[in-house]
Amino acid sequence: MITNSSEQVNNREPLFIIKIGGNVIDDEKTLHSFLKDFSSIKEKKILVHGGGKIATAVGDKLGIQSKYIDGRRITDDETIDLVTMVYGGLVNKKIVAELHSLQCNAIGLSGADANVLPAKKRPVKTIDYGWVGDVNATAINASAWQLFIDNNLVPVVAPLTHDNEGHILNTNADTMAAVLSIALSKLYNVQLIYCFEKNGVLTNVDDEASVISELNVQNYNQLKNDKILFAGILPKIDNAFDAVNNGVHKVVIGNSDNLLQLAKGESGTKIIS
Ligand SMILES: Nc1ncnc2c1ncn2[C@@H]1O[C@H](COP(=O)(O)OP(=O)(O)O)[C@@H](O)[C@H]1O
Ligand SMILES: CC(=O)N[C@@H](CCC(=O)OP(=O)(O)O)C(=O)O
């Protein structure tokens, strides 16, 4: 067990919600070693995965060009078919199969399965994102999740939801992990870990030794203004603050190679509310 009795606040059982992104999934060796560590965690756990990089690569092969605005993929008719195949099929099922080879009782899900993550199509304001969904945090049915988690199943969640009118929606995996963590914090002592290819939030993106061990909102705003933080790390940190400010016990951002240290608070960047 990674957690000790002092971690078991409010008598709630610990639950790890761990997110991996495209760079980790794209590298077979990195993914394998991460899944080995993940499967060794004895506590209850959920894996949320992205795969944006793979969808872009498969799209390129099929002649489907990827377009992003503010880190969100513009998802037209052919792109929703592409990401459904890549996230819900290729990536999700490969991870599930590999976890079973490691004696981890994984069950592949998307937000649409058993309606575990109710969502709405993002309304068109200035930008039409197409078939992109936003999870409705307050409508998450925690007991549907309990059904899996409390029966020794390990959900592996693809970043797809549905709109209640028969359409699949592409949904950002970082946001999905944060919103799910918030909802399940009512039942469990949730620790959210964002795993990516860097050692944490860095003061110099090219120096893996420059990890910021704790990040509060004042430091965050300063680093953002100084352009030390840019691109994908910004929405990731925004999601991390959202989680920690809404009941999630602990949120850490760090390297997928260090999952077990991250889970013990011995690596990465801890987000402070
Ligand atoms: N100061 C920083 N520290 C860490 N990462 C940073 C920083 N500034 C920018 N980044 C970028 O943010 C990226 C992480 O976001 P993203 O690519 O969306 O991750 P993922 O696909 O794993 O969710 C890193 O790969 C890195 O290039
Ligand atoms: C709406 C939207 O942008 N969805 C994301 C979902 C995948 C994802 O989040 O993947 P990473 O975690 O690997 O970035 C996308 O299609 O890129």
**Helix fraction bin:** 25-40%
Put simply, the count of helices is: 9
Structural Rg: 18 Å
| CATH-defined superfamily | Acetylglutamate kinase-like
- The side-by-side strand order for the widest beta sheet comes to 5-8-2-1-11-13-14-12
Report the uncertain regions: none
The CATH class is Alpha Beta
- Total DSSP E strands: 14
Rounded average pLDDT: 96
Bound molecules: adenosine-5'-diphosphate, N-acetyl-L-glutamyl 5-phosphate
The coarse silhouette is globular
Q: What is the strand content?
A: 15-25%
Family: Belongs to the acetylglutamate kinase family. ArgB subfamily.
EC number: 2.7.2.8
Function: Catalyzes the ATP-dependent phosphorylation of N-acetyl-L-glutamate.
Keywords: Amino-acid biosynthesis, Arginine biosynthesis, ATP-binding, Cytoplasm, Kinase, Nucleotide-binding, Transferase
Overall description:
This is Acetylglutamate kinase. InterPro entries: AceGlu_kinase-like_sf, AcgluKinase_fam, ArgB, Asp/Glu/Uridylate_kinase. It catalyses: N-acetyl-L-glutamate + ATP = N-acetyl-L-glutamyl 5-phosphate + ADP. The longest helix is centred in the N-terminal third of the chain and has 25 residues, at 77-101. A hairpin with a 5-residue loop joins strand 9 (160-162) and strand 10. Strands 5-8-2-1-11-13-14-12 form an 8-stranded mixed beta sheet, sandwiched between helices. It has a two-stranded antiparallel ribbon with strand order 3-4. The chain has a two-stranded antiparallel sheet with strand order 6-7. The protein is 36% helix and 21% strand. The protein is an alpha/beta fold and 273 residues long. The protein has 9 helices and 14 strands. The chain has one domain: Acetylglutamate kinase-like (Carbamate kinase). It is globular and about 45 Å long.
